[in-house]
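Sanity check. The docking grid for flavin-adenine dinucleotide depends on where the pocket ends up, so I'm generating a full predicted complex first rather than guessing from homology. Inputs follow.
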Amino acid sequence: MVVPEKQLAAEKEQGRGNGLPERVIVSEKVKRRLAEIVGADRILTAHEDLMVYAYDATLPEYLPEVVVFPRDAAQVAEILKLANAEQIPVAPRGAGTNLSGGSLPLHGGIVLGLARMNRILEVDKENLTAVVEPGVVNADLQAYLAPMGLFYPPDPASMNACTIGGNIAENSGGPRCLKYGVTRDYVLGLEVVLPTGEIIHTGGRTVKNTTGYDLTRLFVGSEGTLGIVTRANLRLLPIPEGKRTLLAVYDDLNDASRTVSAIIGQGIIPTTLELMDNMLIGCAEDFAHVGLPKDAAAILLIEVDGFQESLDRQARVIEQLCRDNKAREVRRAQTAEEVNRLWVARRTVIGAVARVRPSYSLQDVTVPPSKLPQMVSRVVEISGKYDLPIGVLAHAGDGNLHPLVLFDKRNREETERVEHAESEICEVALALGGTLSGEHGIGLSKRRRLSLEFSADEIELTRRLRALFDPNGILNPGKIVGE
Ligand SMILES: Cc1cc2nc3c(=O)[nH]c(=O)nc-3n(C[C@H](O)[C@H](O)[C@H](O)COP(=O)(O)OP(=O)(O)OC[C@H]3O[C@@H](n4cnc5c(N)ncnc54)[C@H](O)[C@@H]3O)c2cc1C
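Predicted complex below; grid placement will be based on this.
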C-alpha cells in the first residue's frame, strides 16, 4: 500500500514549514512574563536567534516565537502553567539531533530548551546509579564515568551531541544496545513536570520496583508529549575488562546480512553488530579516511566485550561464522587508535552522505534479526524500483535498519518517489513482523504511517492517554498522532 497522493500533498504542505508560524500566539506580555521566570539572559526572541531552533536533523523547519532555557524544575513548572493558561504550544528540545521531527515547533509558540540544565548531580558507585539533569550530553556522562570504571550503556551514534533528556524522550538505542538494551532499560526513576505544571516523581533508584503502574517506562519514549523530564536516576554498569573489534569485508551484501542472522542464531550476542553497504562505505571513507575497503559490497563492524579470557574465543567463533558466510577478509583491530578510527567512520556516516546528494531521509524500521536478510534484499529491490540511491546502514544485530534514501528535496517528483519508496520499506518491515521505529520515534515524520501498525482503537487509546496528561494539548502537539 502506498500513501495516497492527496495525503502526500497534505503532508508535504505540512512538512514545508518554511517560515513564520501561521499566527502569533505568544504575546509581548507573555514574553515579558517568560523573561521574569527564567531571567533576561535565558530567553531568545530575535529572528536570527529563533532560526537556530527552527530545525532538527530532519528536513522541515518551523520557526518558534520564543525560546526559553529554564534553570530547574520549578521554572519549567512556571512556564508550563503559563503556557497552559494561555493555550500556547510548547516544543521541548535537547540538542535537536532527533531524526523524527520531534522537537520541531510545529505551530510556533515556545521552544523549551533543556540543554542548559546539564549538571551531573550524583554518581553512586556502590549502587551503580547516577542522577543527572536532562541537558547532560551523553558523551559527557560517559567521559565523567569512565575514570570510575563505570559506563552508561545507551550510546546513540550521535552521543557527542545528544542529551540524556532527548535520549529518554526517544527511548534511544545505539550500536551497543544489541547486548545491553535501550534507554528504557537504564532509567530507574524520573522527575517530570506535567503539562499542567505539577512536578511528579516516578520509580526510584532500584532495579527492582513493582510499586504501582510503571510510569517511568511510560514517560521513556513519550517523545516530549506527556511531560518534561527535569531529572533522571540512571542505572550504570562496570566497564567490561576488555573488548575485541572486528571488521568483516564482503563482496555480496546478502552474505553480510546472512552472517548477522548466523551469529545471533548461534546464541552469540556481540556488543555491536553494525552493517554498512558499498555506498555508505564510500561516503564514510571519503569523509573519515580510515582505510575502509571502498570496493567491498558490505562491511560488518563487530565488537565483543567481557572478561579477557573469553574474548579471543568469542572473536574466533565470530571470525569463523563470517568466513562460513563468505567474508573475503576478517580483520581484528590491533590498537585502540584503530578501533577509534573505525568508530569515527561509523558515527559520522550519516552526515557524510551529503557528498552524494543534498538531502537524505532515514527510516528506522526494525525486524526480527532472522528476517534481516529478507529485509535488506527488499530494500535493494525498492531502491531499483523507485530509481533512488538507498544506502543500507543497520544496527544489524537487533534487526534495526536505517535505509538512507538520498535525493534532492528541491525536486518535487523525486521527493514523491522517496515517499513511496519509504512507505513500501515500512510495509515490508511490518509484513516481516517488525515495527516502524526501533529507536528514532514517530514524531512528525512518521505519524502518518502510525495507522499501518496501530489499529484505530490503539490510536484512540493513545490520544486519550495523552489527553489525560495534557488536557489542553499544549505539549508537543502534532507529534506521534496528529491533532
Ligand atoms: C548522526 C546521527 C546519528 C544518530 N544515531 C542514533 C543512534 O545510534 N541511536 C538512536 O537512538 N538515535 C540516534 N540519533 C537520533 C538522535 O540523536 C536521538 O533521538 C537523541 O536521543 C536525540 O537527543 P537530543 O538531545 O538531540 O533531543 P532532541 O532532538 O532535542 O529531542 C528529541 C525529542 O525529545 C524531546 N525532549 C527533549 N528533551 C526532553 C526533556 N527533557 N523532556 C521531555 N522531552 C524532551 C523533544 O521534544 C523531542 O521530541 C542520531 C542522530 C543523528 C543526527
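Relevant for the grid: Residues 56-57, 91-99, 102-103, 114, 134, 156-158, 162-163, 165-167, 169-170, 172-174, 223-224, 228-229, 350-351, 439-440, 476 surround flavin-adenine dinucleotide (CB under 6 Å).
Also worth noting: The longest helix spans residues 412-431.
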